[in-house]
Amino acid sequence: MSGYDPLPGDPTGVRSAATKYTLTADAVRESAAELRRLIAADDLGRSEAVSALVELSGDVAGRLEKLHGRYETAGSSLSVYADSLETAQTMARQAIEARDYAATEAATAQSWADHYSDAVSEATTPEDRIDAQRLALAHESVVDDLTVQLAATLQNYHDAVALRDTAAAVAAERIATAIDQDGLNDSLWDNFSGWVADNAAVLTSIKNILGYLAAGLAILSLFFPLLIPFALAIAGATALLSLVLASTGQISWIEFGLDALTFASLGVAAIAGVALKGTMAALKSTRVAHLTGLGTSKNPLRSVTASFNGVLPSKVGTANKVVWYREVFSTKGVANAKASRVLTNARAGAGGPGDDLLVGLGKVNIGFQRVELAIPSVLKGANLALDQLGLPAQVLNPVMPDAIDNVLNAGAALDDWYEQVNDQATWRVGSSW
Known about the structure:
Blueprint: H1 11-40, H2 48-122, H3 126-181, H4 188-198, H5 200-220, H6 228-247, H7 253-294, H8 300-310, H9 318-331, H10 334-345, H11 353-387, H12 391-396, H13 402-424
Helix pairs in contact: 1-2, 2-3, 5-6, 5-11, 6-7, 7-8, 7-11, 9-10, 10-11
């Protein structure tokens, strides 16, 4: 029959959790009492620093006393709920057993009632007919009684469910009230920080993957300038995720600073790239105008364009390609390498303060890009190296001579120092102690 299922739940497990909360509440209360005793006993001595410590200890003790209420309420509420759950499960089990018995007996009685109803029509004498009618009515009466019992078992089952649900609601309400009224209420930021902490491993992995992807795209953008916006977008996502992790205390602010610097570097490089395009266009226009004013060229635009194109390298042959790729890598991009050649070697229409200013501005833009596009890969490499400084000592010390061991141990010491710095730079926004 539908509507009858054993009630799920583990009263023993709930009691175990309740006990843990109660024990935690006792430990918190004892800690608070010990802090109060320590402050009152003047065991800490007297100085300005000690006074600050006493004040902080008093604040901590107050927080612990409030926290004790949370855990004590949770323990007692869960304990009461465990008892109610166990009672409800017993009631439900008894209702199911009574249902099964009543259903079986009702089916049997109905079978006999049908049998004697058939016997009434088949009776050959008045006496047999009267006996069959009496027995049919008796079994039908039994069926009616058992039907009433079945309805009662369903009500008992529903009462068991209501007992469980009411007990759960009361426990939840008591715990929620204790949390709301103890002055240690969790804010939306606390809840968000908790979610980040629960998923920190996944979020950190995603951040690291995005960081390496941004650095890789920054390198590829030297040869494919169209990739710079994608590298910038990914670096921005990395910095944003890094900010979330740092502000919730999951990574150090140093690591966030490195990610933010990568984003800023790619942003500066992108801006400098756009500025370089504008500078080169202005330089070309200025030189065309200069040649036009001098009247020394029949077609100033063609002369300046030929001058610009004439300084570009030949890409025929391996040697020429190697030279060109070195220039591309050195100036951090194909466009920069072309612009560098034009700024240095193209002379048609050159001359004058305005031309000198544009040439200088173009070189500055290239310089910015050379520095900024190199930063992401340098930062990633440096951070990776610092994180792994202790690894060589762990792996090689057992098999290396003492002189080399000293070098490896120095690296391990630097690794420990860097880890301590990161630890000191790791804190959650909004934390006060």
